[in-house]
Amino acid sequence: IQLIACVPLASSAVVNDVVPPPSVDEQHDAALPTTDGSQAGKTQQPASNHSQPYFELEDSELNTHTGVKGDFWWELECEELMEDTDEVRPIYHEAAWVLMRGAYYAIVGNKGYDEERTPTLFGNGFHTPIYVGYHPEMGRGVFAAAPIPNNTVIWDDKFAACFEHGWQVRNFLLSIPKGLACDVLIWAYGVKMDDGTVKVCCDLDEGSFVNKADYRE
Q: How far is CA 50 from CA 68, 90, 98, 114, 199, in A?
């Protein structure tokens, strides 16, 4: 998947409260920007008779084998998180994307990657200068940092994480902080493969800020 400019784009105006890009040292040393610092699921038990690692959410029935999207949304209190007007959803820097990519590789491995898509932890899928900032109405978004000529490839999905099995999605959500897990529930999308199977995917880079889950009538 690629995002291509259909018309020339001028660099965007400065948006108030834009989070400046961190330095390399800040990216690696900064704490992960989450809502409360807690982790969605941190109890890992022996796999016993199961071939996959076992995770569960403390004080909940959610685990590797149980739970659909609505269950996770409820148990992680995502609705309250998104509706809290005093809480501005964070703009994640590289530390957060690296954490999620590491969790994904640990669960799925190199499966789903062809020879042209070698897994990597650092970077993003953008081919043009961009920055992530806050829009007064739409929230977090991707802005052009310089004029973009017509027919320029802006972004590709090299950091798309795709899950083939439900237990993989659950383990991923249970192994990252709650704030990130709630965002992933919004960003995730289904992809129908050539063989008819459907995978759940999520772009683990700033490409997830391109679209907004809401719409206006």
A: 19, 36, 28, 28, 21
Q: Is 25 strand, coil or helix?
A: helix
| 189-201: pLDDT as tens digits | 999 888 888 999 9
Instruction: Give me the long-range contacts of 47-56 (CB less than 8 A, separation at least 24).
Output: 52/167, 52/168, 52/171, 53/107, 53/171, 55/170, 55/171, 55/174, 55/175, 56/174
Q: Which pair of structure tokens corresponds to residue 86?
A: 């005093």
Q: Report which of 161, 169, 183 is spatially closest to residue 65, judged by C-alpha positions.
A: 169
Of 131, 125, 155, residue with least CA distance to 17: 131
Instruction: Provide the 8-state DSSP code for 173.
Output: H
Give the pLDDT confidence of 75-127 residue by residue, as tens digits.
Answer: 898 988 888 755 678 899 899 999 999 999 999 876 655 545 555 788 788 88
Is residue 80 helix, strand or coil?
Answer: helix
Question: Coil, strand, or helix at residue 179?
Answer: helix
Beta-bridge partners for 133:
141
What are φ and ψ of residue 169, in 5° steps?
A: -65, -45
Q: Distance between terminal CA atoms of the chain?
A: 28
pTM here is 0.70
Q: How far apart are CA 14 and CA 30, in angstroms?
A: 25
User: How deeply is 13 buried, as exposed, middle or buried, from its count of CB atoms within 10 A (0-12, 13-18, 19+)?
Assistant: exposed
